[in-house]
Amino acid sequence: MTTTWLDEVFGVRKPVIAMLHLSALPGDPGYDTAGGIAAVVDRARAELDALQTGGVDGVMISNEFSLPYLTKTEPITAITMARIIGELLPDLFVPYGVNVLWDGRASIDLAVATGAKFVREIFTGVYASDFGLWDTNVGEVARHRARVGGSAVKLLFNIVPESATYLAARDLASITRTTVFATLPDAICVSGATAGAPTDTEALRVVKSAAGDVPVFVNTGVRAENVATQLCVADGAVVGTYFKADGVFENRADQKRVEELMLAARAFREQLA
């Protein structure tokens, strides 16, 4: 079997990456000025413990509660995330990535600064979105990654962005093929409409078929009861909402739900051996 970067980074087949959603940060409308950074760190540390003790294969740290999102973030966001990740580093023992929503350059900068192995972002396409007209420049971002010494940082391209519609009249298979050929992703993520929304299994199959040797992740809507079905197609999964208490996006991570999903994921992987 050919070794992939996923094997090298995670050490398991079909890894499950847990989202560690940071509370609103300085500059965000929902920031808790009374609790300050200390409150954000305390919640993040508690959730990290639930995720890692529950058995996830990796963690992706994101500013998920920086609603409404910017497509070009303010410097304070990545700066604060770097400070928080620095405080969490002694407690991190699984591979980790970062995601500064929705800013590819800032995500790469944060990865380089914190030693993260991977980032996930919208790197390609033009979209009509809830955040306005959403344009990207993958060539500029790729060159920025090289300039800041981030060539080893793996780029996970989300080609079905949440809360947005691709402006060109192109089918998903065509988008996947040209993304792989022209923009050199390290992996492709396929999402539903919003965080926690189911990812269409047929869309996942289309992308996997068109992606060639590039790994494909199911990016939203993975649950204990469907993780095996989704991993039959995908090379890995990114899970956020299901790991929260009662499966509610705003809640904190619940170790029992993490264990439940990871038990199902491991049972499926054992069948592949």
TrEMBL record:
Which SUPFAM superfamilies does this one have? Ribulose-phoshate binding barrel
Supply the Pfam families for this chain.
Answer: BtpA (PF03437)
Similarity remark: Belongs to the BtpA family.
| The protein, known as | BtpA/SgcQ family protein
